[in-house]
Amino acid sequence: MPKLLRPLLFTLGISALFTQAALHDRSTLQTTLTSMADWQITHFRDDYGRKHEWDNPINGWPYAAMYIGMERWADIAPDKRYYDFLLSVADENKWDLAKAEYHADDQAIGQLYLALYDKFQSPHMLEKTLKRTTHILENPSQQPMRLNNYKYTERWTWCDALFMAPPLWAKLANITGNKQYRDYMFAEYVATTNHLYDTEEHLFYRDEHFIGVKEHGRKIFWSRGNGWVFAGLALILEEMPDGPQKAYFETLFTEMAAALVKLQSTDGFWPMSLKAGDVYTTPETSGTGFFTFGLAWGINNGYLDSNSYLPAVEKGWANMTSHITEAGMLGYVQPIGAAPGEAWPDKTEVYGVGAFLAAGSEIYKLVNNTSK
Fold this sequence. Notes:
- 50% of the residues lie in helices and 5% in strands.
- The protein is mostly helical.
- It has one domain: Alpha/alpha barrel (Glycosyltransferase), CATH 1.50.10.
- Helix 7 runs parallel beside helix 9, helix 9 packs parallel to helix 11 and helix 11 runs parallel beside helix 13.
- InterPro entries: 6-hairpin_glycosidase_sf, 6hp_glycosidase-like_sf, Glyco_hydro_88, PolySaccharide_Degr_Enz.
- This is Rhamnogalacturonyl hydrolase YesR.
- Residues 1-21 form the signal peptide.
């Protein structure tokens, strides 16, 4: 592992100066992740001062993304109370998916249920997810592969969907032993990639409305949108058996990783419009969190060389932790949206915390692996 590069300023409750070696201190990481997870549980039902009209039930995609990150921390945390929290959420939701039958966003919480099933092996944890996905499998949507101003949302016609649904289908194939779930997922994923992936830039357009459009003379690649895809690829690859399908995802993952490290700002965050970092100079922690998670996961799982990618993980993590407020909240999370926009130091969202916990958990594993 290469030497760490320079001193960084971390903020956790109060500002404190550490060297980058602190990234490799398990105690510091554990304290940071515990504090963030506890803050989120305490503020579970807050609205964070959001000013949009989006419905945000606790089985919807914003919370689902938080649960996915929380579960990854729960799996390695010394204190098992995080599983108690997640089980209580699942019970409150009656182990059901959100309401739109085909919509990828409304399948996202199923990833929590499958993770809990993996751990606790109770059949009721699977029943409603299996019912929904089996119906889709037997009655696939006939809508076209285009969003058309949100007219068509039954298929994965926007890039965020590639985080929300495909990992669920990949994991279901392993749990049930029925590869039809994986084959359905793969066919739909390829269709979305053929529609939205820029093979020159190795990045995804958020949806069809950004293809061929430029802002400030640059193509528009939304940071969090690509963060959804990149993090989702890691979640999918964890579930894939060796073979051509897995190789397809491996290629996408490594292509995106190589493109992303070139777009990270010198301050460690990824700009909200990835190709316009000189214009979008405000930090943003949700896209940065998902990229940091994916890169750390790639190192841990042998897809990415640490000499090339560890510095980006270090800078990403340092930037995110520098935006934890004195109250313990993760700031600079871009609000719910679908394009580059604004973020503020005193605004957060649950999916941003999910990205943070996922990234930190993977870094925690990285530290443990390299210290043995």
